[in-house]
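Input record (one chain):
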Amino acid sequence: MSPDSGKRPVFTQLWRQLPFFVWLVALWMLLWGQFTIVAFVTGVVAAVVVTRIFRLPPVELSGRVNLWWGLVFVLEFLVALVRGSLTVAWQVVDPRRLPGTAIIAVPLRIDDDLIMTHTAVTASLIPGSLIVDADRDRRILYLHVIGVRNAADVEKQRASVLHWEERIVRAVGSRAQVKRIVDAVAGGVS
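The corresponding structure, as predicted from the sequence alone:
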């Protein structure tokens, strides 16, 4: 056993947590609306305090980022954001009918907390749907959606959430998760 073998896991843990630490510092600077040295230093202090006091288990990142699928995700998300905004606006001003609503369950295909969180946030950010609950043990997201009139609309919304899960996995999921998604999409499995 080498003398620095005890340090390697600590270094690995710190390296894996670095994106979250950087995000906390950036969030601090955004909250204060200042991009100065003082804001950066106080952000680092705040991030150290937060990460030391509120000890959370480390999030295991896949270590894989596919820039192409990341770009596809961002572009599709922007289109869905505009489309969702226009659709909801039209449903509000259309005097002929009231938009139907539903609570739907969407069983996810990937058993990963980070993927589930990203999928839930993405689905909630698009106007017309909102996550109301998440069943971590069974990998099910529950959404409140508007603009549904029949079972086909419900299935369309469910397929939309699974589509976002697929895009997120292709962008930042592990190779095993990508394979599972590709197999599920090819086999038509939800």
